[in-house]
Design a protein that fits this description.
mainly beta, Immunoglobulin-like, three-stranded antiparallel beta sheet
Length: about 170
């Protein structure tokens, strides 16, 4: 069987790279694809120096405004920073865990520490009423309600589509 017949299109005439691991090459290409796809989402890229954890978030636009629910397990509510700057809602939270075990009879002591920063930013699709934004935190779940500014009620305009004059 001719191995060239199994190669993807356009690869048959390419110079041989037998010394390079094909899975490493595929991994690099996939990393670049995802980095370029998620650029501008406020998420760290694989090549980024910033290492933020991304909390699971549900967002729903309602007649009143926007409701966001974020999962922040193990976070102290005092460590949560929530702010609106222009029309961007930003959630930031510090996660710090210290765990210590000690046994004097066995002569051992174990101390483990971990920390991380959760961060997500969302562009609001409307001008918020900043004075009426509320946030509640219960059992690791943050619920934020961002009402729409009364000066900017939600309106929908139907756009008629007409046939082209070229036909």
């Amino acid at each position: 069987m001719d191995k060239k017949s199994l190669m993807p299109f356009g690869r048959g005439s390419a110079p041989s790279r037998s010394h390079e691991d094909p899975f490493l090459s595929l991994r690099r290409e996939m990393d670049q694809l995802f980095d370029s796809f998620t650029r501008g989402w406020g998420l760290p890229t694989l090549a980024s120096d910033e290492h933020f954890l991304s909390p699971r978030v549900d967002i729903a636009e309602t007649d009143i405004g926007l409701e966001m629910t974020a999962e922040l397990p193990g976070i102290d509510p005092k460590e949560i920073d929530l702010e609106v700057d222009d029309d961007v809602l930003t959630l930031k939270a510090e996660h710090k865990v210290d765990h210590e075990e000690k046994d004097d009879k066995r002569h051992y002591r174990l101390t483990e520490r971990s920390s991380g920063t959760y961060m997500r930013s969302f562009t609001l699709p409307f001008t918020p009423d900043r004075d009426k934004i509320t946030a509640e935190f219960d059992k690791g779940v943050l619920k934020v309600t961002v009402p729409r500014s009364p000066e900017q009620p939600k309106t929908t305009k139907r756009i008629d589509i007409r046939p082209s004059a070229l036909h």
